[in-house]
Structures are given as C-alpha cells and as structure tokens.
Amino acid sequence: MGLRTGQQYVEGIKNRKHAKIYVMGKKVTDVTTNLFLKPSVESFKATFDAAFQEDTRDLARAYSPYIGEEVNRFVHIHQSPADLVAKVKLLRKLSHKTGTCFQRCVGWDALNTLYIVTHKIAAREGRAEYKERFMKYLEYVQRNDLALAGAMTDVKGVRTLRPSEQPNPDAYVRVVEQRDDGIVVRGAKANITGIAVVDEVIVLPTRAMTESDASYAVAFAVPLDTPGVTVVVGRQINDARRLEGGDLDGVPYMAHHEGLVIFEDVFVPWDRVFLYKDWRWTGPLVEIFASYHRQGYGGCKSGLGDVIIGATQGLARAIGIADKPAVAEKLAEMVFLNESMYSAGLAASWEGVKLLDDGGWWVNPMYANVTKHMVARFPYEVAKIAHDIAGGIVGTAPSEFDFKNEEIRHLIEKYLQGVPDIPTEERLRLVRLLENVSVSVGYLVESVHGAGSPAAQKIMFTRLYDFQKAEEIAKSLARVKVTVKWPKEPEPRRPSEAQKT
After folding, report:
1. CA atoms within 13 A on the CB side of 456
2. Which candidate in 42, 300, 400, 443 is catalytic?
3. One of 32, 98, 101, 257 is an active-site residue; which one?
4. Which fold has domain 285-462?
5. Which residue has the higher pLDDT, 253 or 113?
6. Domain named HpaB/PvcC/4-BUDH N-terminal: which ranges (predicted)?
7. pLDDT at 485 exceeding the cut of 90
C-alpha cells in the first residue's frame, strides 16, 4: 500500500551508510535522535500522520491512477484544479499542526514538474526515454511513500556569469562523466529544505540555459544515502534552543532546516536521469516548478499567519487590551493580509491549466506569481503588527529556566502578570510561540527568497501581462482610432513559455 505512517517514515531514515551529514561541525549518525534535527523529523513526520488523522485524512490522501490505489498527497500527480486546491488547503492545515515548514513541498513540486516536462519531450520530440524512466520512478516513489527533497538552487558562484562561464566550474551542478550505465555529477545545491531527513533528493536545473551550458542541463534523483553525498545543515534563528532540553522556550517543538547538499562525483544510473543536455527545456522546467511552488506558499504562510494571529489575540487578552478599537483594527489588518495570500493561492489553483493531453494540471502562472509576491511582503507586515500588539517582551522575556527556578519564579509570576485570571506561564508560552514562529526563517526569510525573490515574480508579471492589449482596450474606450481584436479571455494575457512548448 502506498501509504506510510509517521513512525514508519522515522524508522526508514535512521541508518545512513554512505551519506555524510554534519550539524554544527559534528557528523550525525542518526538524524532521528539528533537534538538539532529531531524537531525537523517531527515536522516531516506530520505529513505522513496527516493521511491517518480524521481531520486531515481526506486532504492528505489522493487516488493515484498510476498504481491504482490511494497515496499520500505529497507524492501525488495533480489530476484536476480540485487537486491543486486541496494542496493549498492541506498546507494551511498542516501549518496549524507544526507551527513551521514541514519540508515536503519542494520534492512534491519537483515530481509534478518532471511529470509534465518528460511527457512534453515525449510528445514534442518523439523521445520517450525520459518519460519512461520518470514513470517507473514515480511508481516506486508512490508505492513506497518516500520523503523527497527538491534541490534546485545552485550555489551560483559569480551571479553575472552563466554556468559555463564560471571560474569555478562546479558552481552549478554538472555532469563530469558519461558512462554506459549512467552519469557522474559534481556540484552543490544550497538552501535545500529538509535535506538531512529525506529518503531521496530530486535535483533540477536552477535556470534557463544555453547550448554552452549543456552539461549543466541535468535532472535526476538519487537516494540521500548515496556515496559521495555530503550534507551541511545551516544555522537558523534561535536554533540552539533545540539543544537545551526545555519545554517552553523551544515551542512549538517542531522546526525545519535548510542545508547545503554536495555531490562529490556521485554516480547516477540512467534510469534515474530525467533530463540530460536538453538545455532548451531548462527554461520551461524552471517556470513550471517555480509557479507550482509559488502557488503553495499561499497555503503554508497563511497557516503560519493563523498561528501568529491567534498568539497575538491571546497576548492582547493577557494584558487586557483585546477589546480596544485600535487593537481590533490591527488584528483585522492581519486577517486581511493573511487571507489575501490564501485567496491568491486558491485562485492560482482554481484557474489552473492543463499542459498535457493526459493530465498535467498546472497552476495559473500569473496568479501563482501574484501569490508569491504577496508572500514576499505580507508576512513582514503581519509580524510587525503582532510585535506591536504583544510588546517588547517578545524579544526580552526571561528564559524558561529562570521561570522554573524556585528562588525567583514567584517574582516573575508577579511582575509579568497581566489580567489576573490568565496565568503568567500562559503569557510566556504565547510569547515564545509568537517569537519562534514570527521571527523565523520559515515565516520571514523564506517568504522573500523561497521559490525566487520578488524580482523573479516581477519578471513573470511583465512576461505574462499583455501591455499592448491593455493599451488597445484603453484607447478604444478613449475613442482613439484603434481596432481592438477582443480576446475570449477577460484578462490581457500572453501565454507562458510552459504553455507554448
């Protein structure tokens, strides 16, 4: 059956024979017990448990026509706009249960991207090898309900130079050897979500390429536990709290991580290679992936926004200001910002487009980019309002170890008491929750840079919006002599590269 429980996932990633994983300079042998990575494992685990929990079961499961049974939605290929909507709704719901990024979305988006691209190459060029390899891999992933990381962002070296122009030729992942049985790759991918706690990693090109970059135009999948793979886990805000063994300062007890994954002459068999030297397809591939990922942000970031709004409301009650008009107005603004992100994500889903004769449902690229552009802005505004209402204690509260010290606990309880019937401990727990969620990489930094920085979305806006058609419409209304060829669609749009290929 293509469904694993959370505990089965945990058992499956315990032992690494080949991959080298480092956290704060030390090699990790068991990621499931390492104090730094365990909160990340717990967050990933929630995506598996969701398929068995009553309140998320329907969202977290989907029927796969490729293996003829139900699978976890995180390995599902979207079959309709309703599937795209379910994705956004599931991400919001899971954010409520984890209070952090649950790390499984990038691999999911990579699966759907490769499904479309490999099928398009087969249809347009009559070459079925990529499609056949991918479909075999998809069946394997779905039957085993694998935890996947998606690795797209290269380390990039000198940003003004193309991959083939780099002084360090390994600044982008590339093929260094072609063999009868496969390829050998070298390079590194940066800021890879959940990389240390997955079963496999899917590697995609990070940008559109030219013929001179052909050796960099590669997409493949390998088990994380493959010889030559090294993972260096990055630092995050307040991450050392995971090592303290407390139960208050570290809430919500789940966390995510990002890491640098390095491929030191890693062998990839041909049946795991889904693109090689086909540089003309890198542009459509990146566009398809980016829009999928930008759409999803409307779900997970609005879910974290709910956590922040709830904590802010609770803290306002704790200090007796929840009923003040100024506070109500600020909370309403937080709701507006939060629901705007979610609404855009749903619009990108319901207005999805079919890129293949046989399925291949993709998001509406304009609305997906609008979603992500909102996400790049609005979480900072939501966090700012939350901190305004909660007060400076969000950044200055005593540690839980002070609170648990019997010599001074009574003093902290007395002087941090607000409304008498709300315990000081409740206020402190909400303070820590608000701090850990609203000042996190997952809510702030990732909102700007994940799935591309704001400049990338603006580029897509200008590509997709038909300014000339809009000008013709305006001139027609202004009674300027112009002949308007009215489109069937209500929006002045140009087709995306993915729709044209």
Report:
1. 21
2. 300
3. 101
4. Butyryl-CoA Dehydrogenase, subunit A; domain 3 (1.20.140)
5. 113
6. 5-275
7. no
Q: Rounded mean pLDDT of the chain?
A: 96
The token pair that represents 239 in the structure block: 């991450």
Active site includes 105?
yes
The whole-angstrom separation of Cα 4 and Cα 75 is 12
Contacts of 95 (CB under 8 A, 6+ apart): 102, 299, 300, 301, 302, 303, 304, 306, 307
Residue 258 annotated in active site: yes
Residue that the structure tokens 């493959």 belong to: 226
pLDDT at 228 over 90: yes
**Omega within 30 of 0 (cis) for the link into 252:** yes
- Concerning whether 462 is annotated as a catalytic residue, the answer is no
- The yes-or-no answer on residue 125 being catalytic is no
Catalytic, 410? Answer: no
Evaluate if residue 157 carries a pLDDT over 80.
yes
Contact of 459 with 369, CB cutoff 8 Å:
no
Which residue is catalytic, options 153, 193, 371, 501? Answer: 193
Cα separation, 21 vs 481, whole angstroms: 67
Catalytic residue among 200, 435, 446, 472: 446
The pTM assigned to this predicted structure is 0.96
Q: What is the pLDDT of residue 1?
A: 64
- Of 267, 220, 55, 47, which is closest to residue 146 (Cα–Cα)? 47
- Residue-range domain boundaries for the chain: 285-462, 465-500
Catalytic residue among 42, 258, 287, 400: 258
When mean pLDDT is compared across 316-320, 426-430, 494-498, the lowest value belongs to: 494-498
